[in-house]
Amino acid sequence: MKPSTRRFWKDFFDLLMPFWRSKEKWPAIGLLVVIVALTLGAVFLSVQFSFWYNRFYQALQDYNQAAFWREIAIFTGLATVSVLRGVYATYLGQWLRIRWRRWMTDHLLSEWLADRAYYRQQLTTGATDNPDQRISEDIQQFVDGTLTLSLSFLGNVVNLASFAVILWGLAAPLTIPLPGGGITIPHFMLWAAIVYAIIGTILTHVIGRPLIRLSFQQQKREADFRFGLVRFRENTEAIALYSGEPSERQGLLRLFGGVMENYYQLMSRTKKLGFFTSAYGQASAVFPGILVAPQYFAKTIELGGVVQVIQAFGNVQDSLSWFVSAYSTLADYKATVDRLTGFRHSLEDARAQARSAEIAVAAEPRADLAVGSVQLALPDGPALVEGDGLSVRPGDRLLLTGPSGSGKSTLFRALAGIWPFGRAQIRIPQDARVLFLPQRPYLPLGTLHAAVAYPAKPEEISAESATEALRAVDLGHLVPALEQEEYWARRLSPGEQQRLAVARAILAKPDWLFLDEATSALDEATEQRMFTLLRDRLPGTTWLTISHDPKVAAFHDRRWRIEKEGAGPGRLVEAPVAAAA
């Protein structure tokens, strides 16, 4: 087995087996057993219908009216059972699918969110594209494809065995005359079906193999185009102010051009495969009739037998040609497995990067925050900022300043334990409540109550507390909409979003508060009121603030500054507060 094939099967079973070993396994196994039984029941019914066709057409040939109506009654019973089997097979299959998809979604979401892998994943050069598609679409396609293909394959194997026995018993030998005698091929119809299917399978694989790569690329390019549209929708105001419609149109059409380019290749390959599979299918309709016709015209087989032979041949050939008929589905399924395994490998790489990171953030039973030897770097290697021997005491209000791009926000990320590039020894107080307020606050989907309570759950913050906090930050006009669901990130202005973040800090009452340009969108008077509010409402909270506004220094009693000279890394040093600029 080729290494790539061995790797694919390992990845496939790594995706497949966790669900069947989980706490959900027994109900799922029970459902699967019933579904398999119903699938085998379909084969049993197909065999019964095969014998029914023999008897029914024989009754017609013999002008036997009594036998005719008896077979109609038998057909009614078989059809009723077939309908019930089909309905419950579909219903129970959907039940198993949604249970499996729910478990896989929860499992993969947990992997994505654990250890902040979702954040580190986007910092790596080979980051997986469109993780939202992996979780929302590819899991569904994997679950559907696994059940559909496996049950279809099982049904076809059993169908092959059942009808091969029937065809073996019905098929007469074929004698090929040769000089001096001849060659007799026993059970010729069965061997003809096998050879016919093998030839079709080989040609299908040769023609359709590129579909695997093209299906993978099509999914990727469709997702890139969809992401471009979502990004446009989320930034409509900025685009409108820039009058950036021509540029956006060009960019979106460029993304769609990639979709079309790959789709044309997909069309061409699908057309070639379609020509072959359609011709193969059409030939299958008459091929067994041509083979059995000499026996019928020689009156060695009756009409009912002919019909049963043709049907048995068709079932054997269809089962053996499963690969032919399912090739496009298999190509899509292979691409889905590749995308999901690529996503999981990316998560594993992100976690491995976190484990191997030389930035150690240790929670210790201490009161202060200590920054030992620190050297932070960019993802592509160059050192960004370095420092040594600095600490923050409880109750300090520390201002961090420095030129734009000198590494201030990166230092905050390192203190939060999410920046993996560089070296650092950081010790923080154990069990301290910490809250970071970034320049652009995150507003989750849902009610305004949920947005102001975040990262706490809305039920943990009373409506009265949320109302009071909103009024304190001059957002009282939003109180009537507290339980209203909207896309708040689009409805609120940047300044309103930053004031809402201050309301979060008031409600959370953290021990340590990190503000990264958290008031940059506010006018001077409002900014002063927000810092006054934080000082009055959170008297015991330690602040670490990034700001370029000199007036913010009045609310702080210490300052760190990143001093940068030339192209080398900036130096983190203690500086006088009065010199903030």
Would you kindly provide a written description of the structure presented here, covering whatever features stand out?
With 581 residues, the protein is an alpha/beta fold. The chain is 63% helix and 13% strand. The chain contains 18 helices and 15 strands. Strands 3, 4, 5, 6, 7, 8, 9, 12, 13, 14 and 15 form an 11-stranded mixed beta sheet that branches. It has a two-stranded antiparallel sheet with strand order 1-2. A two-stranded antiparallel sheet has the order 10-11. Helix 1 crosses helix 12, helix 2 runs parallel beside helix 5 and helix 7 packs antiparallel against helix 9. The protein is elongated, with a radius of gyration of 35 Å. The two termini are 66 Å apart. 29% of the residues are buried. The mean pLDDT is 85.
Q: Which stretches of 5+ consecutive residues score pLDDT under 50?
A: none
Number of helices: 18
Distance between the termini: 66 Å
Supply the helix-strand structural class. alpha/beta
The pLDDT mean sits at: 85
Question: What is the strand tally?
Answer: 15
**Rounded to an integer, what's the Rg over CA atoms?**
35 Å
Overall body shape: elongated
Largest beta-sheet characterization: 11 strands, mixed
Measured by DSSP, the beta-strand proportion falls in: 5-15%
User: How much helix, percentage-wise, in residues?
Assistant: 55-70%
